[in-house]
Design goal:
Layout: H1 9-24, E1 38-40, H2 55-69, E2 78-80, H3 86-94, H4 100-104, H5 107-115, H6 123-126, H7 128-137, E3 143-145, H8 151-167, E4 181-183, H9 213-220, H10 242-250, H11 253-265, H12 270-296, H13 299-328
Parallel strand pairs: 1-2, 3-4
The structure holds adenosine monophosphate.
Adenosine monophosphate binds next to helix 1.
């Protein structure tokens, strides 16, 4: 994740919740199903803003949210891209394995250009998925729990891994890289409070993981619902309603059928429906808020967790780069 500051519900439903599930998943014999690694993509954030003044603070804020939501640093090293130099090194090699035409076809890039009204693109932004491929493959990631917008990037990562393996074989390992699979959830694209685009900080349509109940309700109040339901008793259409899409994630099955019936018959007004939705979101966020306070009061602990994660990441990334150089016969080559 890029350190864009406090995380929002889209990060949570699209990625973070899934990360934690993978982190804690056990096999029948009690061992862990996955070794998980979580990366703060601070170099990636330069693709859309050159202002680095808030980068460190945003990284710590984001890590605090991760820890509050259940990332366990004992199980999953957490680290910044900028502090493990092998990311830049592998990115350079990978940038030789993909054409600019392929990167220009990336639908996520096209969407960003449209949503942010961008009239020009820096070279590094075009290469965003190439750096992401390095982020994933340095740790030999084979499963990547991401939101829907990142699926094209995982596809590019697969192509780069395939291209590398087809050109370079390691004398002992054969293929150096796996071809990773994306792992998405049902809520891999959460729409923002404006009801138009995905929830995103840059579009200002978010509910934050750190928002308390009053803030959640305040943000929910003006949210767009079914535009044909003008008066309280007008029948509504849950399938086109943004608030109902949040209910699908945050409300129980029993509540969902009551809400759907009430909306369709006109018995349930949008204000009451929003109140219920806000309350359910807040009750899911309550334990995260509480754990967040614990870490906010211990900033040195959060920094120590980050530094320890970075040490672990450097060891893994250094080993992979050694294999890459051996496969490519770059540097010292034994006879
Ligand atoms: P980013 O902030 O772009 O680095 O995104 C971090 C992760 O959160 C990625 O896996 C995204 O796919 C996911 N994500 C961000 N916004 C949303 C959203 N509105 N809905 C679902 N997933 C999201």
């Amino acid at each position: 994740m890029r350190p864009t500051g406090m995380l929002h519900l889209g990060h949570y439903t699209g990625a973070l919740e899934n990360w934690i599930t993978q982190q804690n998943l056990l096999l029948p014999d009690g061992s862990r199903a996955y070794q998980t690694c979580f990366l703060i993509a601070d170099y990636h954030s330069l693709t859309t803003s050159l202002d680095t003044s808030g980068l460190y603070g945003h990284s710590i804020d984001m890590l605090t949210d991760w820890l509050a939501a259940g990332v366990d640093p004992e199980k999953s090293p957490v680290f910044r891209q900028s502090q493990v130099k092998e990311h830049a090194e592998l990115f350079l090699i990978f940038s030789m394995l993909i054409t600019t035409a392929r990167l220009e076809r990336n639908p996520t890039l096209k969407e960003q250009v449209r949503d942010l009204n961008m009239d020009s693109l820096v070279y590094g932004h075009l290469g965003y998925p190439v750096l992401q491929a390095a982020d994933i493959l340095l740790y030999k990631g084979d499963v990547v729990p991401v939101g829907e917008d990142q699926i094209p990037h995982v596809e590019i990562t697969r192509e780069i891994a395939r291209k590398f393996n087809s050109h370079y074989q390691h004398p002992q390992l054969g293929d150096v890289f796996p071809e990773p699979e994306p792992k998405i959830t049902k809520f891999a694209r959460l729409v923002g409070l404006d009801g138009k685009a995905k929830m995103s900080k840059s579009l200002g349509n978010t509910i934050l993981l750190s928002d308390g109940p009053d803030e959640v309700m305040k943000k929910m109040r003006p949210a767009v619902t079914d535009t044909q339901k003008v008066r309280r008793n007008d029948p509504g259409r849950p399938e086109v309603c943004l608030v109902y899409s949040y209910h699908q994630k945050f409300s129980s099955i029993e509540q969902l059928s009551t809400i759907e019936e009430g909306c369709r018959s006109g018995a349930l007004g949008c204000v009451d429906c929003k109140k219920m939705c806000a309350a359910n979101i807040s009750s899911e966020l309550a334990p995260i808020l509480e754990k967040r306070r614990y870490y906010e009061e211990r900033p040195d602990l959060v920094k120590a967790i980050l530094h320890e994660g970075e040490q672990k990441a450097r060891t893994i990334a250094g080993e992979t780069m050694r294999e890459v150089r051996e496969a490519m016969k770059i540097g010292e080559v034994s006879a």
